[in-house]
Design goal:
The chain is mainly alpha-helical. It has a domain of 43 residues. It is 60% helix and 0% strand. Helix 1 runs antiparallel to helix 2.
Length: 73
């Protein structure tokens, strides 16, 4: 039995290549490192959130909203 396909309009806005996700993870690491260097807890939290979004949440959403997972270019 195939998994149900969610038809979310926001899924069409998500990029279908790996580059934006990798850039978001890299920016998250840079923000978190800057937060550690400046002892700013908010920057650390924002960096961790960006890493989480780029590495887990957006690709998961993209895979759940398509009938066949996209091939990364």
């Amino acid at each position: 039995m195939p998994a149900p396909v969610l038809d979310l309009p926001l899924a069409t806005l998500l990029p279908h290549s790996a580059a934006p996700y990798l850039a978001l993870v890299a920016i998250g690491f840079a923000v978190a490192i800057a937060g550690h260097l400046s002892n700013a807890r908010r920057l650390i939290a924002i960096g961790i959130i960006l890493i989480f979004l780029g590495a887990f949440l957006f690709p998961l959403t993209l895979n759940l909203t398509e009938s066949t997972p996209p091939r990364l270019k």
